[in-house]
User: Fold this.
Amino acid sequence: MPKAHLCDVPGCNTTRKRWQRLCEKHFAALPGDIRTGIIGAHAAGRKADHRRECRRAAAHLSAAAGQATVTPERAFELSQRLLGER
Assistant:
């Protein structure tokens, strides 16, 4: 059975292709400087820099997830305001 290659972002257990470092979801969600930092540090064999960039990616994704949280009540209120119902 072939080895499962996992995404380098901490906490992500999604599989990736062997030649990739990130799963498709995280590759699309991360900014370019973080993506190239992870890929470049791994390719150069700089393990400490690679771990640092992976932690930076996890921090970026958790911060982005915290900002995107909108309650259903708030979404309804915003749609009412947009439609001029209030």
The first helix runs from residue 24 to 29. The helical segments are 24-29, 32-44, 47-67, 72-83. The chain has a mean pLDDT of 88.
